[in-house]
Amino acid sequence: MSTDTEISVRYPSSARVVADPLTTGSTATLTGVSRARSLRFGALPRPARFVLLRPGLLLSVALLAVVVLAAFAPSVLAPGDPLTGDTTQKLLAPSAQHWFGTDHLGRDLFTRMVHGTALSMRTALLAVVIASVIGGLFGLTAGFVGGGVDNAVMRVVDVLMAVPSLLLSLALIAALGFGSTNVAIAVAIGSIAGFARIARSQTLRVSQSTYVEAARSLGSRWHVTLRRHILPNASGPILALAVLEFGTAILAVSALSFLGYGAPRPAPEWGALVSEGRNFLATAGWLTMLPGLTIAATVLAVNRVSKALDGEWRTFR
Q1: Cα(108)–Cα(74) distance, rounded to whole angstroms?
Q2: Bridge partner residues of 28 (DSSP)
Q3: pLDDT tier at 174 (50, 70, 90 boundaries)?
Q4: In whole angstroms, what is the distance from residue 178 CA to residue 86 CA?
Q5: What is the 8-class DSSP label of residue 102?
Q6: Cβ neighbours of residue 94 closer than 8 Å, sequence gap 6 or more
Q7: What are the CA-CA distances from residue 59 to residues 52, 63, 304 (Å)?
Q8: Taking the CB of the first residue and of the last residue of the chain, which one, N or C, has fewer CB atoms within 10 A?
Q9: For residue 181, with 0-12 CB atoms within 10 Å meaning exposed, 13-18 middle and 19 or more buried, which class applies?
Q10: With left for phi above 0 and alpha for psi between -120 and 50, is residue 102 left, alpha or beta?
Q11: Proportion of the chain above pLDDT 90, given as a percent
């Protein structure tokens, strides 16, 4: 009697094993929408495929592209004057002529939002750059040097993290004075701790890698090891955090501008526009709602891009 056992396996008709159009020498099971999208975008570069296969990310990138255009070329989207109004046209509801309506002085709210984008984005970007550079240097020094330097730096970071960032920013604004630059500095100091912790952890991780130990054993100088091996391999999570913190900085800058600590009036900062409309909530709610929705949509779009950079891009093939 034969000891071999014959097993018959029947596969569902809907399951098919086909060659992966995106790689050579490998096979994958692609069915339905995923297969159609892969075949459609297979000839495109990897970044383009990455964005087009994710509708939420595509929408976020498109929204941020509009925000960047408004920051650098506001006249393209809104050619009018954001500071000049017509009192006969005050408190008009959103329409085809005035997309966001008009305020109590007859100024077009959409024009003011577009021209105020540069102020808000510049302040938030300056805050992120200052925080990432200072926090990154602190974390890099603590993780690379170690010992007493590490303990001293991290105790300072612990103190910064113990105080809520917005409360710390308000205290610093009271000491530095009003203005967009002072707001950026205050928000940056409140964000340094996060960058320092991420930079330190990534430096410790990379420093224990085999290639770093090999470079040291071959007599590589410390600054060469730092520049060629540690910095390039530790910068990815720091970049993702910088994008995420940019959204947080937009919220913080808008909050401080709402309280009157930003650029002096009548500068159309986003937070200031929300503040101006709160006196007309009952009669002209769009003056507060539309700028607030714009801020929320921008922050959500930044967070979506940060999520894509942090984890999705590394696993995308």
Answers
A1: 14
A2: 18
A3: confident
A4: 30
A5: B
A6: 100, 101, 286, 290
A7: 10, 6, 10
A8: N
A9: middle
A10: beta
A11: 24
| Mean pLDDT computed over every residue of the chain | 81
First to last CA, the chain: 50
> What pLDDT, in 10s, does the model give residues 248-281?
999 999 999 998 888 887 888 899 899 888 888 8
Cα 68 to chain centroid distance, Å, stands at 13
Question: What single-letter amino acid sits at 205?
Answer: R
> What is residue 311's DSSP assignment?
I
What pLDDT shows up at residue 163? Answer: 86
- For tokens 């509009």, the residue is 66
57, two tokens? 């990310």
| Cα angle 247-252-255, degrees, rounded to a multiple of 5 | 125
Listed residue (265, 239, 311, 314) closest to 103, CA to CA: 265
C-alpha separations of 44 from 15, 47, 49, 210, 317 in Å:
27, 8, 6, 36, 13
Q: What is the pLDDT of residue 249?
A: 92
CA gap 35, 267 in Å, rounded? 51
Q: Which of 134, 116, 102, 115 lies closest to 253, judged by CA?
A: 116
Residue 93 is classified by DSSP as P
Q: What distance separates the 2 farthest-apart alpha carbons in the chain?
A: 102
* pLDDT band of 239, cuts 50, 70, 90: confident
Q: Which two tokens stand for residue 216?
A: 């040291």
Per-residue pLDDT at 5 exceeds 60: no
